Amino acid sequence: MDHADRPDRPVTSAWVTVDLVIFTVRDDALQVLLVERGKEPFQGRTALPGGYVGTDEGLEQAARRELWEETGVDSHDLHLEQLGGYGTPGRDPRGRVVTVAYLALGPEMPEPVAGTDARRAHWTPVEKALDDEGRHLAFDHAVILRDALERARKQLEYTTIASAFCTEPFTISELRHVYEVVWGQPLDPSNFRRKVLKAERFVVATGQRTASVAGRPAALYRRGEKKLLVPALLRAGEE
Amino acid sequence: MDHADRPDRPVTSAWVTVDLVIFTVRDDALQVLLVERGKEPFQGRTALPGGYVGTDEGLEQAARRELWEETGVDSHDLHLEQLGGYGTPGRDPRGRVVTVAYLALGPEMPEPVAGTDARRAHWTPVEKALDDEGRHLAFDHAVILRDALERARKQLEYTTIASAFCTEPFTISELRHVYEVVWGQPLDPSNFRRKVLKAERFVVATGQRTASVAGRPAALYRRGEKKLLVPALLRAGEE
DNA sequence: GGAATAGTGTCTGTGAGACAGTATAGG
DNA sequence: CCTATACTGTCTCACAGACACTATTCC
User: Does A238 fall in a domain?
Assistant: First the structure.
């Protein structure tokens, strides 16, 4: 890049990172994977997993790599999408760092492996992570987490990604449970079933049933190919 | 940033830019503002307006500045939102450049002023800009433009931003025209009116009427405070 | 049988698409 | 008068919320 190509105003290069908001449903709660930072800045503080983007590495590729390194989860097993870029000056005390955040949704996963740099990773209920406005989180991760939560809630309305939270095969009740936990409100089981089954290829029947623990055995389904949910499944009390 | 802070794999810093997809409705078509590049790389080629992010400048702030510099439009007069980050290695031949794209929607604007570096800016129908898969566009701007188009079409369904395309005060027909042009399909005038007026505070009546050119004068409205449109105004034939 | 969970049916209100009909302007 | 555009009303069908009822399992 030659000098003539640079603009008049001061321009400095930046470090580029990816941060991951990894959601799952555990213990009747929406949980997010957080790590304890092993070094400065924000050493000992809680943060989203993430790291630097390699020289010849795409953004999504970097996100998949970080996901693997932090959790041992293969990104092919879950839904991954970009949330957006965050680049407020001063968001990282080391200098100009622009991060691209990714949202990952997956079924209940094993306890995460220790990270590459021995950072402790653990699942935390989102509600708890946002306690006190999320001020205990490093960087601007509270902002990113709030954006991710809002995005996930919206996505449940207009797409079929709720099924990404379920381990196949799953029951309609388990799928409904995902909605109830993410939205924080109960849904009518009867109407939910009608809606989901009416939307062709949201879920596909396997023909199998659960070995019931209590009550009548439930039919088991797999994810269908349909991605967009129309008409949408709206949460009550939106404005 | 000290050495110990860097990861094992090679990491280089990157240049950060913002690119703008500025949409408006003109001459019965959705149009996008494109510039002719005055310098390498891609000299003489068509591209989205954009530029480097300043050292102490936020991403959105940079987008607003570029918007002003390229078009003379005050960003307060239109809707601005982030589309996402684009960082595929090799997307810019000068080296690692990560761009954050913004989507701007505005009412019909004057012909753009010449850019700061004498690049010629002009409105182009989106359909034409995407001719031949948009291969004539510089960088990966065809990809960004397609993403922006899809985002704008979606936004019309679930939000009230269509009104951002209208100069106040506007008629219901003008608002409907925006939908028809962006979606590329005709809408029933009667049902559209009912829907828009039923959604409280999507538009607010001014009490005035058009000085009619032909036919009965139409009532004039301003934008209401409502942002989310529920129930949504769905386009036909979605899947 | 009773408890628990799965699944079906039905009633009612609302909203969308289709489209006929009325209102108000210019010519 | 006619034409053009704005606006109103109405019919029908599909769907959502509410909720009663039936089915199948374990105890």
Answer: no
Of B123, B97, B227, B52, the residue nearest A55 (C-alpha): B97
∠ at Cα A22 (A21, A23), nearest 5°?
115
Mark whether A141 and A164 lie in a shared domain: no
Q: What is the pLDDT of residues A156-204, one digit of tens each?
A: 999 999 999 999 999 999 999 999 999 999 999 999 999 999 999 999 9
Same domain assignment for residues B21 and B42: yes
Q: Which residues pair with A41 in a beta bridge?
A: none
Asked if B7 has any chain A CB less than 8 Å from its own CB, the reply is: yes
Series of mean pLDDT values for 10-residue runs along chain B (239 residues): 46 92 96 91 94 95 92 87 97 96 92 62 95 96 98 97 97 98 97 96 96 90 96 84
Structural domain total, chain B: 2
Residue B108: domain span: 14-148
Whether B154 is covered by a domain: the verdict is no
Domain contains B8: no
Listing DSSP states for B20-65 in one string gives: EEEEEEETTEEEEEEEE--SSSSTT-EE--EEEPPTT--HHHHHHH
A11, A54, A231 ranked by CB distance to B9: nearest: A54
pTM: 0.93
Residue with minimal CA–C1' distance to D8 is: B190
Q: Do B232 and A228 touch (CB under 8 A)?
A: no
Q: Are residues A171 and A129 in the same domain?
A: no
* Sequence-ordered list of residues with C-beta below 8 angstroms from that of A143, at least 6 positions apart, any chain: A86
- Where residue A41 sits, what CATH number does that domain have? 3.90.79.10
